[in-house]
Amino acid sequence: MRFVIRRGMAKATLHMLHTCPFCWKVRGIVEYLKLDVDYISVNGLKIKKAVSFAGDWGKVPVFTDESGQFHTDSTPIMKFIDQHYNEGKLQSLGDLDRTQKWIEWADTKMSKATVPILYGTLGSAFKTTTRISKLEEFGVISKRLYAWAGFPIMWGIIAKKRVKKDGRKPKQLWHDLLTEFTDEHNGENFFGGEKPNIVDFSVFGYMRSISPFPQFSLLTDHVNAMAWYDRMNEIIA
């Protein structure tokens, strides 16, 4: 995580994409804590320009606090927000070593599963880029460019390699991960116990980012995961 002082700001901001799993990790905590944060949507083809104030980071999310310090990388941002606005309660709920282990699990396992389920076939990739072009901030030309040029790149260059390397179909991969995660709840409503902790918000962010797309239907027959997901939605709302 990097930061720098930007003068003249009085309100926290989050530079983001609406369909970005890393942004949803942060948004879940922001909305759960009911923080007064301005969401700033960026053009998906002009992210580096939009967050140029963050140096060479060039990605979203970027969180800028009230003092003008910017913070990058979703998990460090989550930890900062919890510590700065919530006395670190989401991180301290439960065994610290277990929490850190599963944060790393989410950031390595869940993050790599989002691309295969959204872009794992040529048809799903086209549906995804078309949907993203409607949800995100694009210009007229860049909207069409992303919708029609983005899907063969995401499918052919990125998603196919990940699916082949893992060996499981995207639905099976997600179901296996969700089973692994919900089994760790040990009969409780959340990973954190009676209340969610930072791991719950991390996994929720990855899952929530898929919800605007038709592929989310592949997850809805995982009974335990959907029950947990609905509880997370309810507690955040």
Q: Mean pLDDT, nearest integer?
A: 89
Under CATH at level 1, the class of the largest domain stands as Mainly Alpha
Q: How would a crystallographer describe the biggest sheet?
A: 4 strands, mixed
Rg over CA atoms, rounded to whole Å, is 18 Å
Spatial shape: globular
CATH architecture of the largest domain: Up-down Bundle
Secondary structure: number of strands: 4
- In DSSP terms, counting alpha (H) and pi (I) runs of 4 or more, how many helices? 10
Residue share in β-strands: 5-15%
Percent helix range:
55-70%
Give the neighbour order of strands across the main sheet: 2-1-3-4
Q: What is the element string, with H for helices and E for strands?
A: EHEHEEHHHHHHHH
Low-confidence stretches: 1-9
Structural class: alpha+beta
- Total domain modules: 2
